[in-house]
Specification:
CATH topology of chain A: Arc Repressor Mutant, subunit A
CATH class of chain A: Mainly Alpha
Oligomer: homodimer
Distance between the termini of chain A: 22 Å
Number of domains of chain A: 1
Order of helices and strands of chain A: HHEHHEEH
Strand content of chain A: 5-15%
Radius of gyration of chain A: 14 Å
Number of strands of chain A: 3
CATH architecture of chain A: Orthogonal Bundle
Amino acid sequence: MQNPILPEREIQQLSGVIKAMSHPLRYKIICLLGRGEMSMQNLVKAINTSHSNASQHLALLQDSGLVLVRRVASRVYFRIRDQRTLRLLAMSHHVFA
Amino acid sequence: MQNPILPEREIQQLSGVIKAMSHPLRYKIICLLGRGEMSMQNLVKAINTSHSNASQHLALLQDSGLVLVRRVASRVYFRIRDQRTLRLLAMSHHVFA
DNA sequence: GAAAAGCGTAGCCATCAGTCTACAGTCTGG
DNA sequence: CCAGACTGTAGACTGATGGCTACGCTTTTC
């Protein structure tokens, strides 16, 4: 709960991660993955978009380090990398909803 | 720590607030305001940008409800609206830094 | 009252982000 | 091997975002 003046690099990194969560679809994806691993197919259905669109958002979530991927044959399964990410979402919901 | 499927409106709202925090300058502004109220002048110096640029980011932070403003004569002072916002930042730092 | 300081905003431009279509690659089932 | 399912990516388009300059408004100072 302290509030140090952060170095520039951390500012960039942290705002970057937050930005990755700041899109409605990505926010929803993280919410969904909070309930457990999901396949690409189920995610596409759940968030109601094209598989291309979902694929790109999920790639961004991987790049930002929020989501991990597991491949089984031709299918991919996604899951949250760090469960604390969910606590972050829960807190955002608690504060701003 | 539950993870309900949120209604669309809340998804939009929450991702919107998070988006407001996702820019490096705005992230830094919130960090700075976490230490207490600051004048526009001091903010401009602290984040090292033009006053025009700072003004626009601060306007966005006001619109998103994260920051409150107080006017004294020709000067303006900004402060965090909800201290829990800082806890959110602190947690993001704790998780991702 | 005139000049200067402090802020906000409009207009412009460059860049980025989000979405779609189309296509390519990989795997499965027959 | 072939058809089809599943996924990733390249290219193009559109809208949003970020930054600057210039200007206008209010307040202070002299």
